[in-house]
Amino acid sequence: MLHTLIQSPYKTNIPLLISMLKKQDDFLALQDGVLIALTNNFFLDSIIFSSANLYLIKDDVYARGIINNISSDFTLISYFHFVSLTLKNKTQMTW
Q1: In angstroms, rounded to a whole number, what is the distance separating the alpha carbons of residues 8 and 32?
Q2: 49 with 69: CB under 8 angstroms?
Q3: pLDDT tens figures, 63-84
Q4: Per-residue pLDDT averaged across 16-28, rounded?
Q5: What is the 3 state secondary structure string of the chain?
Q6: Domains defined along the chain, listed by start
Q7: Strand partners, 26
Q8: pLDDT tens, 27-52?
Q9: Rounded Cα gap, residues 62 and 70, in angstroms
Q10: 55 conformational bin, left if phi > 0, alpha if psi -120 to 50, beta if neither
Q11: Which pLDDT value is given to residue 87?
């Protein structure tokens, strides 16, 4: 399953999201959702511990000027790769 986080993690039920993540799932943060990858983020350890595949949209990270403050546990991807994730995952959940 592909889980996409679009809004700030502080406006989302992140504990519920994390409880639903499975090891084989893909998690993608875009727009304000990329804030979840900030190194001092309250939710960071929990999302990393989920063992899901963690992705961020590179353009959104750069647009917010946070490239030097994100966790290395996330993979930066393009919107093209985002499309590949949607094709790979037949089921999706948007947060």
Answers
A1: 5
A2: no
A3: 999 999 999 999 999 999 999 9
A4: 96
A5: CEEEECCCHHHCCHHHHHHHCCCCCEEEECHHHHHHHECCCCCHHHHHHCCCEEEEEHHHHHHCCCHHHECCCCEEECHHHHHHHHHHCCCEEEC
A6: 2-94 (3.40.1260.10)
A7: 2, 53
A8: 999 999 999 999 989 999 999 999 89
A9: 11
A10: beta
A11: 95
Instruction: Give one word for 63, left, alpha or beta, with left for phi > 0 and alpha for psi -120 to 50.
Output: alpha
15 to 28, 43, 62, 87, 90: CA distances (angstroms) = 16, 8, 26, 26, 24
State pTM to two decimals: 0.94
Evaluate whether 5 touches 29 at the Cβ level (below 8 Å).
yes
**Per-residue tokens: 91:** 């089921």
